[in-house]
Write a structure and sequence with these properties.
mainly beta; 6-stranded antiparallel β-sheet; 5-stranded antiparallel β-sheet; 0% helix
Length: 185
Protein backbone atom coordinates (compact mmCIF):
# COMPACT_ATOMS: atom_id res chain seq x y z
CA UNK A 1 0.00 0.00 0.00
CA UNK A 2 1.09 3.54 -0.68
CA UNK A 3 -0.25 6.82 0.65
CA UNK A 4 -1.72 9.28 -1.86
CA UNK A 5 0.55 11.88 -0.23
CA UNK A 6 3.49 10.01 -1.84
CA UNK A 7 2.12 10.17 -5.42
CA UNK A 8 4.70 10.75 -8.16
CA UNK A 9 4.18 11.11 -11.89
CA UNK A 10 4.54 7.68 -13.53
CA UNK A 11 3.66 5.72 -10.36
CA UNK A 12 1.50 2.64 -11.04
CA UNK A 13 -1.36 2.01 -8.60
CA UNK A 14 -4.28 -0.37 -8.21
CA UNK A 15 -7.66 1.17 -7.34
CA UNK A 16 -10.86 -0.90 -7.13
CA UNK A 17 -9.32 -3.70 -9.20
CA UNK A 18 -8.12 -1.45 -12.04
CA UNK A 19 -4.52 -0.51 -12.83
CA UNK A 20 -3.64 3.15 -13.27
CA UNK A 21 -0.56 5.25 -13.96
CA UNK A 22 -0.44 8.64 -12.21
CA UNK A 23 -0.13 11.26 -14.96
CA UNK A 24 -0.64 14.35 -12.83
CA UNK A 25 -1.50 15.15 -9.21
CA UNK A 26 -2.04 18.16 -7.00
CA UNK A 27 -2.14 18.44 -3.23
CA UNK A 28 -4.94 20.79 -2.17
CA UNK A 29 -5.28 22.32 1.31
CA UNK A 30 -8.48 24.35 1.37
CA UNK A 31 -8.95 26.99 4.06
CA UNK A 32 -11.96 25.09 5.34
CA UNK A 33 -12.20 21.32 5.46
CA UNK A 34 -9.75 18.48 5.08
CA UNK A 35 -6.84 18.36 2.63
CA UNK A 36 -7.13 16.17 -0.47
CA UNK A 37 -5.18 15.03 -3.52
CA UNK A 38 -6.61 15.70 -6.99
CA UNK A 39 -5.14 13.32 -9.56
CA UNK A 40 -5.26 12.48 -13.25
CA UNK A 41 -4.94 8.72 -13.81
CA UNK A 42 -4.53 6.67 -17.00
CA UNK A 43 -6.14 3.22 -17.02
CA UNK A 44 -3.53 0.71 -18.24
CA UNK A 45 -6.12 -1.81 -19.44
CA UNK A 46 -8.25 0.40 -21.70
CA UNK A 47 -6.21 3.61 -22.07
CA UNK A 48 -8.91 5.91 -20.66
CA UNK A 49 -7.88 8.89 -18.55
CA UNK A 50 -9.90 9.72 -15.44
CA UNK A 51 -9.70 12.42 -12.79
CA UNK A 52 -10.02 11.22 -9.23
CA UNK A 53 -9.89 12.90 -5.85
CA UNK A 54 -8.50 11.14 -2.77
CA UNK A 55 -8.59 12.22 0.89
CA UNK A 56 -5.15 13.18 2.22
CA UNK A 57 -3.50 10.18 3.85
CA UNK A 58 -5.71 7.64 2.05
CA UNK A 59 -3.90 4.47 1.00
CA UNK A 60 -4.10 2.77 -2.39
CA UNK A 61 -2.50 -0.45 -3.66
CA UNK A 62 0.81 -0.20 -5.45
CA UNK A 63 1.00 -2.24 -8.65
CA UNK A 64 4.34 -3.69 -9.72
CA UNK A 65 4.47 -3.71 -13.51
CA UNK A 66 7.02 -5.95 -15.22
CA UNK A 67 8.74 -4.45 -18.28
CA UNK A 68 10.37 -7.07 -20.49
CA UNK A 69 12.47 -5.95 -23.43
CA UNK A 70 11.32 -7.62 -26.63
CA UNK A 71 11.84 -7.29 -30.38
CA UNK A 72 8.99 -6.57 -32.79
CA UNK A 73 9.07 -9.27 -35.45
CA UNK A 74 6.11 -9.00 -37.84
CA UNK A 75 2.41 -8.41 -38.36
CA UNK A 76 0.11 -11.20 -39.51
CA UNK A 77 -3.50 -10.11 -40.05
CA UNK A 78 -4.61 -8.42 -36.82
CA UNK A 79 -1.83 -9.94 -34.71
CA UNK A 80 1.59 -8.46 -34.06
CA UNK A 81 4.35 -10.80 -32.89
CA UNK A 82 7.14 -9.95 -30.43
CA UNK A 83 10.10 -12.05 -29.30
CA UNK A 84 12.14 -12.08 -26.10
CA UNK A 85 15.75 -11.87 -27.33
CA UNK A 86 17.09 -13.85 -24.35
CA UNK A 87 14.64 -16.77 -24.13
CA UNK A 88 13.28 -16.57 -27.72
CA UNK A 89 9.72 -16.78 -26.34
CA UNK A 90 7.19 -15.21 -28.69
CA UNK A 91 3.94 -13.45 -27.85
CA UNK A 92 1.26 -11.95 -30.07
CA UNK A 93 -0.81 -8.86 -29.36
CA UNK A 94 -4.06 -7.89 -31.07
CA UNK A 95 -4.12 -4.77 -33.24
CA UNK A 96 -6.67 -3.04 -30.96
CA UNK A 97 -4.16 -3.24 -28.06
CA UNK A 98 -1.64 -1.25 -30.13
CA UNK A 99 -3.71 1.51 -31.76
CA UNK A 100 -1.35 4.47 -31.20
CA UNK A 101 1.85 2.41 -31.01
CA UNK A 102 1.40 1.03 -34.56
CA UNK A 103 2.28 4.50 -35.89
CA UNK A 104 5.86 3.95 -34.69
CA UNK A 105 6.52 0.18 -34.87
CA UNK A 106 8.94 -1.07 -37.50
CA UNK A 107 10.33 -4.59 -37.84
CA UNK A 108 13.23 -5.56 -35.53
CA UNK A 109 12.56 -2.58 -33.22
CA UNK A 110 13.29 -3.14 -29.52
CA UNK A 111 10.43 -2.19 -27.18
CA UNK A 112 9.27 -3.03 -23.64
CA UNK A 113 6.20 -5.21 -23.00
CA UNK A 114 4.27 -4.21 -19.84
CA UNK A 115 2.66 -7.02 -17.85
CA UNK A 116 0.97 -7.36 -14.48
CA UNK A 117 0.79 -10.81 -12.87
CA UNK A 118 1.05 -12.49 -16.28
CA UNK A 119 -1.53 -10.22 -17.97
CA UNK A 120 -0.05 -8.27 -20.89
CA UNK A 121 -1.14 -4.63 -20.69
CA UNK A 122 0.60 -3.20 -23.74
CA UNK A 123 3.95 -1.86 -24.88
CA UNK A 124 6.24 1.01 -23.94
CA UNK A 125 7.85 2.71 -26.89
CA UNK A 126 11.12 4.63 -26.69
CA UNK A 127 10.72 8.41 -26.23
CA UNK A 128 11.50 8.96 -29.93
CA UNK A 129 11.95 6.80 -33.03
CA UNK A 130 13.71 7.18 -36.38
CA UNK A 131 11.36 6.82 -39.36
CA UNK A 132 12.01 7.24 -43.08
CA UNK A 133 9.95 9.67 -45.20
CA UNK A 134 8.24 7.77 -48.05
CA UNK A 135 6.07 10.54 -49.46
CA UNK A 136 6.10 14.34 -49.35
CA UNK A 137 5.63 17.17 -51.80
CA UNK A 138 8.74 19.20 -52.66
CA UNK A 139 9.35 22.45 -50.80
CA UNK A 140 8.59 25.46 -53.00
CA UNK A 141 11.42 27.99 -53.21
CA UNK A 142 10.40 31.33 -51.77
CA UNK A 143 7.72 29.74 -49.59
CA UNK A 144 9.78 30.35 -46.47
CA UNK A 145 7.51 32.22 -44.11
CA UNK A 146 8.52 31.66 -40.52
CA UNK A 147 7.48 28.21 -39.31
CA UNK A 148 6.28 26.98 -42.72
CA UNK A 149 5.53 23.25 -42.75
CA UNK A 150 4.27 20.59 -45.11
CA UNK A 151 2.81 17.12 -44.72
CA UNK A 152 5.07 14.05 -44.92
CA UNK A 153 4.13 10.37 -44.77
CA UNK A 154 6.63 8.08 -43.00
CA UNK A 155 7.20 4.34 -43.49
CA UNK A 156 4.61 3.31 -40.88
CA UNK A 157 1.84 5.37 -42.54
CA UNK A 158 1.89 8.19 -39.97
CA UNK A 159 1.43 11.71 -41.38
CA UNK A 160 3.73 14.30 -39.79
CA UNK A 161 4.04 18.07 -40.24
CA UNK A 162 7.67 18.78 -41.20
CA UNK A 163 9.73 21.81 -42.29
CA UNK A 164 9.91 22.57 -46.02
CA UNK A 165 13.51 21.32 -46.41
CA UNK A 166 12.57 17.67 -45.68
CA UNK A 167 12.63 15.40 -48.76
CA UNK A 168 11.60 11.83 -49.56
CA UNK A 169 14.17 9.37 -48.23
CA UNK A 170 15.16 11.54 -45.24
CA UNK A 171 15.18 9.83 -41.84
CA UNK A 172 13.34 11.80 -39.14
CA UNK A 173 13.28 11.70 -35.36
CA UNK A 174 9.62 11.52 -34.27
CA UNK A 175 8.28 11.97 -30.70
CA UNK A 176 6.21 8.89 -29.75
CA UNK A 177 4.08 10.80 -27.20
CA UNK A 178 2.44 13.17 -29.69
CA UNK A 179 3.69 12.02 -33.12
CA UNK A 180 5.44 15.31 -33.88
CA UNK A 181 8.63 15.96 -35.81
CA UNK A 182 11.71 16.60 -33.64
CA UNK A 183 14.59 16.75 -36.12
CA UNK A 184 16.39 14.94 -38.89
CA UNK A 185 18.21 11.86 -37.64
Amino acid sequence: MISVNDFKTGLTIEVEGDLFTVQDFQHVKPGKGAAFVRSKLKNLRNGNTVERTFRAGENVGRAHIDNREMQYLYASGNEHTFMDTETFDQISLEQDQLKWELNFLIENMMIKIMSFQGEILGINLPKSVELKVVETEPGIKGNTAQGATKNAKVETGLNVQVPLFINEGDVLLIDTDDGKYISRA
